[in-house]
């Protein structure tokens, strides 16, 4: 939408989108991409076998947040992830799920806030960098001490950053 109908948006806020297709030609990140593919593939296989709880835990522990993090999640988050496992499986089967072309957003001249945590999986940094290079008014903000879900782990800091960005560009 930002590329085709930018007139409908006042700005964008994007946090660590898994637009890994942007990195397909970057040999420096190829090992990281392969690692992500393998880890996600393992989660997909587990969902397909019917083990939604195990797949959700594996996703959290090996793809998104790291070892030991599943035990720290509130039960309601765990349930949501387990309940959404079939949807994740459907998305994983879509060959165009993560297709994204930078040309789609190069004409987006409105403000854009691109955020990431400094403890996030390292593959997100290059994605944010590619987006920032392509978007004329992109601002990048890194949350110290935060991982992939700063809105959950650092909600006050995250909300303050969003509010400041919106106020700055209103």
Concise structural overview:
The chain has helices at 30-48, 52-64, 75-83, 85-93, 124-134, 150-153, 155-168; strands at 12-15, 112-117, 138-143. With 170 residues, the protein is mainly α. Helix 5 (124-134) links the parallel strand 2 (112-117) and strand 3.
Could you explain how this protein is built, in words?
This protein is mostly helical and 170 residues long. The chain has two domains: 6-19 and 100-168, Rossmann fold; 30-93. It is built from seven helices and three strands, in the order βααααβαβαα. Strands 1-2-3 form a three-stranded parallel β-sheet, with helices on both faces. Helix 1 (30-48) packs antiparallel against helix 2 (52-64) and helix 2 crosses helix 3. The model has no long low-confidence stretch (mean pLDDT 91).
The tally of domains stands at 2
SS element count, helices: 7
What is the CATH topology assignment of the largest domain? Rossmann fold
CATH class of the largest domain: Alpha Beta
Assembly state of the chains shown: single chain
- Described by the principal axes of the CA atoms, the overall outline is globular
- Tell me the total number of β-strands: 3
CATH superfamily of the largest domain: Alpha/Beta hydrolase fold, catalytic domain
Q: What characterizes the major β-sheet?
A: 3 strands, parallel
Poorly predicted ranges: none
Which strand order do you get reading across the main beta sheet? 1-2-3
How far is it from the N-terminal to the C-terminal residue, by CA?
20 Å
């Amino acid at each position: 939408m930002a590329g085709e109908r930018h007139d409908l948006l006042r700005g964008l806020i994007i946090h660590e989108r898994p637009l890994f297709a942007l990195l397909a030609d970057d040999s420096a990140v190829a090992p990281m991409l392969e690692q992500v593919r393998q880890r996600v593939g393992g989660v997909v296989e587990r969902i397909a076998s019917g083990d939604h709880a195990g797949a959700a835990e594996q996703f959290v522990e090996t793809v998104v947040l790291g070892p030991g993090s599943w035990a720290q999640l509130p039960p309601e988050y765990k349930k949501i992830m387990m309940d959404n496992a079939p949807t994740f499986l459907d998305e994983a089967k879509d060959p165009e799920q993560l297709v994204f072309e930078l040309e789609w957003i190069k004409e987006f001249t409105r403000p854009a806030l691109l955020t990431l945590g400094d403890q996030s999986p390292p593959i997100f940094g290059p994605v944010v960098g590619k987006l920032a290079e392509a978007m004329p008014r992109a601002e990048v903000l890194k949350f110290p001490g935060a991982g992939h879900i700063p809105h959950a782990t650092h909600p006050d800091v995250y909300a303050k950053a969003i509010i400041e960005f919106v106020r700055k560009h209103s």
